[in-house]
Amino acid sequence: MSYVPLAGYAGQVSLCQLSMAGIGAVVWGHLGAHGQLWALGAAILVSAAAGALVALPALRLSGVYLALGTAAFAVILDRWIFTIPAFHALGLRIALFDQGSVDISGPHLFGLRLDSGRELMVFAAVCLALASIGVAALRRSRFGRRLIALRDSEAAYATLGGNLLVAKVAVFALASGIAGLGGALYGMQQRTVTAGQFSLIAGLPVFLVAVVGGLGAVGNGLFAGTAYVAPTNALIAIAPGTANLVALLPGLAGVGLGHNPDGIVSRFRRQWEPLGRDRIALPALLCVLALAWALRFGDVINDWTYYGGSLLLAVALRAWADARQAAPAEAEIPVEWWGLRREWRPEDEEVLARGIAAG
Q: Which one is predicted more confidently, 265 or 308?
């Protein structure tokens, strides 16, 4: 999700977002050891401050040079900063990975300790939904329009009075804060994290999958996480001998990017829009999904039946809604009958003028 406002809206390519996630995981691991929820805010703020620091030297960089600059910053973090031992500064003990690993626990929420895998998954899903709503609202805000103008032309943005320094620092800080939140949630689910999990090499496939999904689409956060984890784990579980082949999947997906330069998410949205607009199919789908969830919760059906049946039902209802909303094909009417057998259209005059000029 952090790539959407940074690369999708503002056009600033960064290869150190996973490093920002590592900072968020470390801050939560040390400050939220007992589940204090305020430590999650601290993880976001510290990651945002680190992102703003990255934006300062990158102010005069763009395109591939900005990507190389942020990649160098990621290498500095995972090869040097993350591996230094704990030290004291101004009376405070500063500890990162401390040349090892960091144990991370779940948060306390409304008096409950979220510690199981299912509880943390629901908590992470709520955080992703809130972040997605925030990024979608950002796109429609005045600052979001400024970011789009910055992506179109930095020179024009500055000529019209925009402050490049403020805009770049703000969007880098925002994206890094989102990445820090993701890193903290990732650490909660992993229980233990190391510096190698947030290296530049580990972040490149994530960035590639995000590009395939579409950097300008808010739904890319959900798509990239699902596409990066689900297919690989499913194939390895079914055929353990395909582990090496599965490592090539992000690269193969990138090769197919030329077919969908805007990303797969935008294509999915266009394909599923008829279902979202249908007043019969959409409520029917929601009701059946709720019933299926209740059956799964009561152990009446298993996971494969729940997910497979839900997917088949959704595809069938989408096809039905698409057929219901398809416009009837209009019979072709000769030119001489325009205005008689059908209404005269404003573009008809231009069509006739071009035909007369060609004759």
A: 308
Of the candidates 8, 13, 261, the residue with the CA atom closest to the CA atom of residue 148 = 8
Is the Cβ–Cβ distance between 196 and 78 less than 8 Å?
yes
What pairing do the DSSP bridges indicate for beta strands 101-103 and 192-194?
Answer: antiparallel
Residues 33-51, mean pLDDT to the nearest whole number? 91
Is residue 113 helix, strand or coil?
strand
Lookup: tokens for 88: 């004291």
Widest CA span in the chain:
89
Q: pTM of the entire structure?
A: 0.77
Length of the chain: 359
Q: 341 burial class (0-12, 13-18, 19+ CB within 10 angstroms)?
A: exposed
User: Helix, strand, or coil here: 219?
Assistant: coil
pLDDT value at residue 240: 62
- Could you tell me which residues come within 8 angstroms of residue 41 by beta carbon, excluding any fewer than 6 positions away? none
CA–CA distance, 202 with 197 (Å, rounded to integer): 6
Give CA–CA dist 1/213, Å, rounded. Answer: 11
Which residues have C-beta within 8 Å of that of residue 257, sequence separation ≥ 6?
Answer: 211, 212
List of residues 6+ apart from 307 with CB closer than 8 A = none
Residue 126 has pLDDT above 90, yes or no: yes
Q: How far is the C-alpha of 333 from the C-alpha of 340, rounded, in Å?
A: 10
Query: Which pLDDT value is given to residue 335?
Result: 78
